[in-house]
Design a protein that fits this description.
Blueprint (H helix, E strand, L loop, with lengths): L2 E13 L4 E10 L2 E6 L4 E7 L4 E4 L1 E3 L8 H7 L3 E11 L2 H8 L6 E7 H9 L10 H4 L4 H16 L5 E4 L8 H13 L4 E4 L11 H15 L3 E3 L2 H5 L3 H13 L4 E5 L4 E5 L9 H5 L6 E3 L4 E2 L2 H10 L2 E5 L3 H9 L3 E3 L5 E2 L2 E2 L2 H16 L5 H8 L1 H7 L20 E4 L20 E6 L2 E5 L2 E2 L17
Parallel strand pairs: 1-4, 1-5, 6-7, 7-8, 8-9, 9-10, 10-11, 11-12, 12-17
Antiparallel strand pairs: 1-2, 2-3, 5-20, 13-16, 14-15, 14-16, 18-19, 20-21, 21-22, 22-23
Helix pairs in contact: 3-5, 5-6, 6-7, 7-9, 13-14
Length: about 450
């Protein structure tokens, strides 16, 4: 009888690609799934998964890694691959080199319009623009330089092209179309934070979605709209109708959401320029400073805007959140960021919140639907550009052994806005490339099996 490195025994194995849903055993060799069988499997290590769900590891299309802490926080939520595809990076080699050998989970990035624009315009901002890149129209020469840098990043293996048009509002519509053209050349999806928010015209989310659907239509680029919940706010149902219509007419448009009614962004960004209250339909009392837990007023808003930092904005109605979660169009992605232990609970709890709250408690999704949104749907979004994802998001022989094992009766998030890294309950085992990084619900100290996932580089 064949001996495996690890066997996962007696769990309910769920594969959203094939629809398989059976109690069976999984054998792993050299980081790959080598057998799925009713037969007893011999292995150096056996994980007893009786009464638990065994499914592919979760793929997060939207994370902002600032240090290695975020990989560990996400691992405990069942994430096995986390990707910086919205803001992206301006230097693909540097990004992948920074995390190589230091990550508990797999990682990857887009080449980002924001950092490229910042580089070309010599913007002093670190993560988001604070100068010209956010507020000045680009010259033809600068647009050409941006295209060259995006093309270079794609040649180096970037997974996609990222856009944060709400942070670069001075970018012309033509500039965006020019960037989409480059993405289309490389069959790279465009992951876009829309230029507008909410339902109030002008510059609302409906107009903003029209802009990028049009850019996709005229260039042939694939479009992925990030965090539909926090961008759409009251207009989420209308945005879902628009995406449905675009898909019915042959456009490749997808979207994502995270299961929280509050978003988080930089208080010093252009999103809070004059007029934000009227435009978003919220006031100071809907803004929370996560470092202290205080809700803001005019005085504290001015103080923190001058200093800069992350702010929590409670801006999405519950009914919009529910519409986003239930829609068959939406994947689950976190928009994760944690700095010095502070941030948004979506980093530590998005996936377990969906499983515990929206599946078990409310019954808004069935379990296979939810797992599909976390695994096979994001894998399919990227597999044309990056064939490595043909082995992700699936629990099948030959697939990468990125696997989560959780208790469907207890799994739930516990993170909060003031304690955003508190680990969930019921996420018992997480394997990355066949190596346990979470066992019995706790991190395996020193386990760093995460690999950088890239598209083929130029010449491959």
């Amino acid at each position: 009888m064949t001996s495996f490195d690890i066997a996962i025994s007696g769990g309910r194995v769920m594969d959203p690609d094939t629809g398989v849903d059976n109690v069976t055993n999984v054998g792993i060799v050299d980081g790959k799934i080598a057998e799925i069988s009713q037969s007893e499997l011999l292995a150096e290590e056996i994980i007893d998964a009786s009464g638990q769900i065994v499914c592919p590891g979760f793929i997060d299309l939207h994370c902002h890694p600032q240090d290695t802490e975020i990989f560990e926080v996400q691992a405990r939520d069942g994430v096995t691959t986390t990707l910086e595809l919205e803001v992206g990076t301006g230097d693909i080699d540097e990004f992948y080199g920074r995390w190589e050998g230091k990550a508990a989970i797999n990682f990857g990035a887009s080449i980002g319009h924001i950092p490229v624009r910042m580089k070309v315009m010599k913007d002093p901002g670190v993560f988001l623009p604070s100068g010209d890149a956010g507020r000045r129209e680009a010259s033809n020469r600068e647009i050409a330089d941006m295209k060259s840098l995006i093309r270079h990043g794609l040649d180096e293996g970037a997974l996609a092209v990222g856009f944060g048009l709400d942070y670069t509002r001075a970018a012309s519509r033509w500039e965006v179309i020019e960037m989409f053209k480059v993405a289309a050349e490389y069959k790279a999806s465009c992951h876009v934070h829309l230029r507008g928010k909410g339902h109030k015209e002008p510059s609302n989310s409906i107009e903003a979605l029209e802009e990028v659907i049009a850019a996709a239509a005229v260039t042939g680029a694939s479009l992925h709209v990030v965090h539909l919940n926090s961008t759409g706010m009251k207009a989420v149902p209308e945005l879902l109708q628009m995406i449905t219509g675009a898909r019915q007419r042959g456009l490749d448009v997808t979207t994502e959401c995270y299961p929280y009614t509050a978003g988080m962004t930089k208080i010093e960004s252009a999103l809070f320029d004059d007029g934000w209250q009227e435009h978003y339909g919220i006031d100071y009392d809907k803004l929370m400073w996560p470092d202290t837990g205080e809700y803001l007023n005019a005085t504290t808003f001015s103080k923190y805007r001058e200093a800069g930092g992350w702010v929590i904005a409670f801006s999405t109605p519950e009914e919009s959140m529910t519409a986003a979660i239930q829609s068959p169009l939406t994947m689950i992605a976190t928009d994760s960021i944690i700095e010095k232990g502070k941030g948004h609970p979506r980093t530590a709890g998005s996936y377990t919140k969906v499983l515990g709250d929206y599946v078990r408690e409310r019954g808004y999704l069935d379990l296979m639907e939810a797992i599909s949104k976390m695994t096979i749907m994001p894998a399919r979004r990227l597999e044309q550009r990056a064939p490595a994802f043909l082995k992700k998001g699936r629990l099948q022989v030959g697939a990468d052994a990125d696997i989560t094992v959780f208790d469907p009766d207890t799994v739930i998030d516990t993170s909060t806005y003031t304690n955003p890294t508190t680990p969930p309950i019921g996420m018992n085992y997480v394997l990355v490339n066949g190596v346990p990084v979470v066992s019995h619900g706790s991190l395996e100290e020193g386990a760093l099996p995460g690999k950088g996932i890239m598209a083929p580089t130029k010449g491959e």
